[in-house]
Design a protein that fits this description.
65 residues; N-terminal domain of TfIIb; 5-stranded antiparallel beta sheet; globular; alpha+beta
């Protein structure tokens, strides 16, 4: 589990904007870039080349914030 302290300071490496923990807690989503950064073994993989496009249901959820 990622600590709240880390979540408070981590940003999207592409736009430097905020990221949100996904509802399933398996990734960090950037609403501005529409990218998903996976969390593997409790470590967020914050590499732009490794990021995936947000699934449509996550895009809708992220727009609420």
């Amino acid at each position: 589990m990622i600590s709240q302290q880390l979540l408070d300071i981590i940003v999207c490496p592409k736009c430097k904007g905020p990221v949100q923990l996904t509802e399933t807690k398996d990734g960090l989503a950037c609403a501005a870039c529409q990218l998903l950064y996976e969390i593997r073994n409790d470590i967020p993989i914050m590499l732009i080349d490794e990021a995936k496009a947000l699934p449509p249901q996550e895009q809708t959820a992220q727009k609420k914030y």
